[in-house]
Design goal:
alpha/beta; Aspartate Aminotransferase, domain 1; Aspartate Aminotransferase, domain 2; 2 domains; 7-stranded mixed beta sheet; 4-stranded antiparallel beta sheet; binds pyridoxal-5'-phosphate
Length: 404
């Protein structure tokens, strides 16, 4: 069970007022709030263990290294990876996907094909388009149905002899749809094709085990999981990572360097050029401890109830509301429009009532085009939100709608 009052005490920002109104933070899909233990972990790193990692002979350097590598082991454990060699720290989901597009992409040839879906975030579209500057890869896009679910037959039909990779989100940041990832992996593997999963929206809200999923790559961001900004993870199966060329060059990622010949470091360091953000990586480990202490299954259950309650109340109490995304499995994301009211105008009026939501295209313009809208209003929930937050939100939407 979630003790929401106890949890909220760990998030001092929730005591803030906005325009004199209590803050109702429903923009969790953009970034989550950070609990005090994580903030304390950052402070502790600066105050006690600030030294560069992996090379110092001195005590502080060893302590910083232990904390960074300790966090890597926590990530390995959290996602069920076999080895820390398969856990690469990046700046976020975006950089993790760019790493694969750049490094795995380097081995692709003109005419090779990549399968994406229409519900992808720009960060799982544009890196593949950048690859097209060097190699004429073809992008095949899987459509979604009216409920916002992927068409699995169309997905299967996208595979050809030239398909080299599937890149798909675990959960949509707009529709909330949680894709049947295990099935998508099985289908890809039945065609002999590896699969990359953008897990930015799924990781904060449900149990993910990469070994069970058997996916080849999995990318996610700390800042959407109550951790610090500037840290992300690329999980990759060792077989792929071993054969992929480095992404960036510099310190940390080398074995030996000479002007004639440079060798690369072992995994995972081969893909971590330069001084890593060891302060925030260590604090991300604390964020995982925080989630584990509450329990991800309890979180998922609680958030599902909030989403159901919010969807039902919004539909019941706001005439003319249109909800985007009615998949049978959803993460706690509620996208909607009211009549023909512009999403931005609605967002401004909600803000004035202390309600923080996201408006616009949510970095998913192709999906907006598919839905034939220019944007939506998106309320997204976390385990520190309450039914009272939902009540205030619905009342604020109804009030705003009555002003047009
Ligand atoms: C937020 C998000 C990203 C990008 O994550 P960054 O942390 O900005 O790198 C990618 N995909 C999805 C589905 C997202 O929600």
């Amino acid at each position: 069970m979630i003790d929401v009052n106890k949890i909220r005490a760990d998030f001092p920002i929730l005591n803030r007022k906005v325009y004199g109104k209590p803050l109702v933070y429903l923009d969790n899909a953009a970034t989550s709030l950070t609990p005090q233990p994580v903030v304390d972990a950052i402070t502790r790193m600066y105050n006690c263990h600030k030294a560069n990692v992996h090379r110092g002979v001195h005590a502080l350097s060893q302590e910083a290294t232990d904390r960074m590598e300790g966090a890597r082991d926590k990530v390995r454990d959290y996602i069920g990876a076999k080895s820390t060699a398969e856990v690469i720290f990046t700046r976020g989901t975006t950089e993790a996907i760019n790493l694969v597009a750049s490094s795995f992409g380097e081995q692709l040839a003109n005419g090779d094909e990549i399968i994406l879906t229409v519900m992808e975030h720009h960060s799982n579209i544009v890196p593949w388009q950048l690859l097209q500057r060097h190699t004429r890869v073809k992008l095949n896009v899987v459509p979604v149905d009216a409920r916002g679910e992927l068409d699995l037959d169309a997905y299967d039909d996208c595979f050809t002899d030239n398909t080299r990779l599937v890149a798909v989100c675990h959960a949509s940041n707009v529709l909330g749809t949680v894709n049947p990832i295990k099935r998508l992996v099985e289908i890809a593997h039945s065609h002999g094709v590896p699969i990359l999963i953008d897990g930015a929206q799924a990781m904060p809200h449900r149990r993910v085990n990469v070994a069970e999923l058997d996916c080849d790559f999995y990318a996610f961001s700390s800042h959407k999981m109550y951790g610090p900004n500037g840290v992300g993870v690329l999980y990759g199966k060792r077989e792929w990572l071993e054969q992929m060329p480095p992404y960036q060059g510099g310190g940390e990622m080398i074995g030996t360097v000479s002007f004639e010949r440079t060798t690369y470091a072992e995994l995972p360091f081969k893909f971590e050029a330069g001084t890593p953000d060891f302060v925030d990586i260590a604090a991300f480990g604390t964020a995982l401890d925080y989630i584990n202490a509450i329990g991800i299954d309890a979180i998922a259950h609680y958030e599902q109830q909030l989403l159901d309650y919010a969807t039902e109340r919004l539909r019941g109490e706001v005439p003319g509301v249109r909800v985007f995304g009615e998949a049978s499995h959803k993460c706690p994301v509620l996208s909607f429009l009211v009549r023909d009211i512009n999403s931005y105008d609605m967002g401004v009026l909600l803000d004035r009532q202390g309600i923080a939501v996201r408006t616009g295209h949510h970095c998913a313009e192709p999906l907006m085009r598919h839905l034939r809208v220019t944007g939506t209003v998106r309320a997204s929930f976390a385990f520190y939100n309450t039914r009272d937050d939902v009540d205030r939100f619905v009342a604020a939407v109804a009030r705003a709608a009555s002003m047009f």
